[in-house]
Amino acid sequence: MTPDAERPLPRFAQGALYRALPGSRRETYWIQQFRDLTLVGLPGGLVQVLACDSNASIGEKPNDALAKPHRATGFSAAKVPLMEVLASGASPLILVDVLCVEWDPSGREILEGIRASLASISLDIPIITGSTEDNMRTTQTGVGIVVLGIARTEDLRLACTPAQSEVLAVGLPHNGASHPYQEDDPDIARLSTVMALRQLADVHEILPVGSHGAAHELRLLAETNGLQLVPSRTSEFPLHESAGASTCVLATAPRGYAARVERHTGLPVTVVGTLAGPSTG
């Protein structure tokens, strides 16, 4: 099935698969994997945005590799997919928590942490649902989070960075293994950071950095925009260090915009490169 000529695919959905809606021969939807997001384009110009993340061996169980309160585990586990959906420009609608622990006390405390992450930005998600493991005794903590959001196609900040834009690293990479941190540390990105960046009309795209490090996300950013990355020669930003639960984010913006982003977010901002192009690949 081919796209309707009257509804051309946006850049971030090029190559998407089209399918007929069940029970309808005329209405179609498209589906596409874009970086870490799954996108579903619906009739009427709406797009569903889905993100997920897992968190294992961090908690209060006897076999956890990193000891942390279950509430902190829930907070960090929810943070990553929420950041990814919010960074895309979508509004979260549903959060699913898959908790591989018993409900009381571990699951209940993890859920409290999840709700605390939402409260940190006054985010009201209509539906929070999930499950726990109450049939088997668990000795290690495991958490999976899925977030489903929705947006109008034109409101999504995906593959929309023009050539000659600078790439800014907002916050610094930390991870629980080699560089421990707390979610309220003054140099790490949080959900409020993404919300602050969304308020700046001149910020083109926002891309949370995860365990693969900023260098990996920079390559994806350049590829999805069809541009060439020119790394900064003066930056000492640790591009290959794991950013754990998205302790820093990348943002693309016009040249000379870093100081404004720093003032607006209250975090350290580093120019890590420029997207010049187009790519010849």
Describe it for me?
- Helices cover 23% and strands 30% of the residues.
- The protein has helices at 70-88, 103-119, 191-198, 214-225, 258-265, and strands at 17-20, 28-34, 37-42, 46-56, 58-59, 66-67, 91-99, 127-131, 142-152, 165-171, 206-208, 228-231, 248-253, 269-276.
- It has five helices and 14 strands.
- With 281 residues, the chain is of the alpha+beta class.
- The two termini are 28 Å apart.
- The protein is globular.
Features:
5 helices; disordered N terminus; 30% strand; 281 residues; seven-stranded mixed beta sheet; alpha+beta
Q: Average pLDDT value? A: 92
Report the sheet-strand fraction.
Answer: 25-35%
- The helix content, as a percent range, equals 10-25%
Q: Globular, elongated, flat, extended or rod-shaped: what is the shape?
A: globular
The arrangement of helices and strands along the chain is: EEEEEEHEHEEEHEHEEHE
Total helical elements: 5
**Arrangement of strands in the largest sheet:** 1-2-3-4-9-7-8
Based on CA atoms alone, the radius of gyration comes out at 20 Å
How many strand segments? Answer: 14
Task: Summarize the structure in short.
Helix content is 23%, strand content 30%. The protein has helices at residues 70-88, 103-119, 191-198, 214-225, 258-265; strands at 17-20, 28-34, 37-42, 46-56, 58-59, 66-67, 91-99, 127-131, 142-152, 165-171, 206-208, 228-231, 248-253, 269-276.
